[in-house]
Amino acid sequence: MGSTAVSILSNITAEQRKQIDHIIKDSEGTPGRLIPVLHETQKVIGHLPPEIQEYIAVRLNIPVTDVHGVVTFYSLFSEKPKGKFCIGVCKGTACYVKKSQKILDKLEELLGIKGGDTTDDGKYSIEVLRCLGACGLGPVMTINEKVYTRMKPDRIKETLIKHEEWEANRDECS
After folding, report:
1. Which residues pair with 143 in a beta bridge?
2. Which of 14, 106, 152, 154 is most buried, judging by how many CB atoms fall within 10 Å of its CB?
3. Closest to 64 (Cα-Cα) out of 76, 49, 78
């Protein structure tokens, strides 16, 4: 690998590189392998920064623009690290009509970040989502894939606290 690969590798641990290389090797000969490789790589390091996209492109022998295009097109992928508590706010039509923007505004005010960002301490991130399929229960908010329905701005702080407690208790049981 050239000097580009060396500089890229400085941003991940040796174990992460080994895992990513294994993911890529296991995909050899598989048509349409880019999305699964990106998905599995994101599981390893939590996001797909441009340096990792470039590394994958080099290893798969495809243009980095193709990799970047897929990463930025699909909302499943993130170029930024996500927080321990990843909060999603649905802004599909039904939730939007039911004032999901007020939910987003309140979250941004409480956490001091905008949608798509992560708090400096890495605790919270906010994502703007498109339709979660719970249109009759909107506005809908998720925290780490747990769904909260019929949200109101004045319930957000309490919901965050209760969710953190729930996650802590869940971790103790596993």
Report:
1. 87, 146
2. 106
3. 49
Q: What is the CATH number of the domain that holds 135?
A: 3.40.30.10
Res. 116: pLDDT tops 50: yes
What's the burial of 63, exposed, middle or buried (CB within 10 Å: 0-12/13-18/19+)? Answer: exposed
Tokens read off for 119: 């708090």
- Based on the domain organization, do 111 and 167 belong to the same domain? yes
Check if the beta carbon of residue 21 is closer than 8 Å to that of residue 60: no
Question: Can the peptide bond before residue 81 be classed as cis, meaning omega within 30 degrees of 0?
Answer: no
Cα(138)–Cα(133) distance, rounded to whole angstroms? Answer: 10
Beta carbons of 157 and 110 less than 8 angstroms apart: yes
Residue 78: Cβ within 10 Å count: 19
Q: Cβ of 102: how many Cβ atoms within 10 Å?
A: 16
Would you say residue 74 has pLDDT above 70?
A: yes
Last residue of a domain, which of 40, 73, 106?
A: 73
- Residues belonging to the chain: 174
- Structural tokens at position 78: 């993130």
The average pLDDT across 101-115 equals 96
What amino acid is encoded at 87 in this protein?
A: I
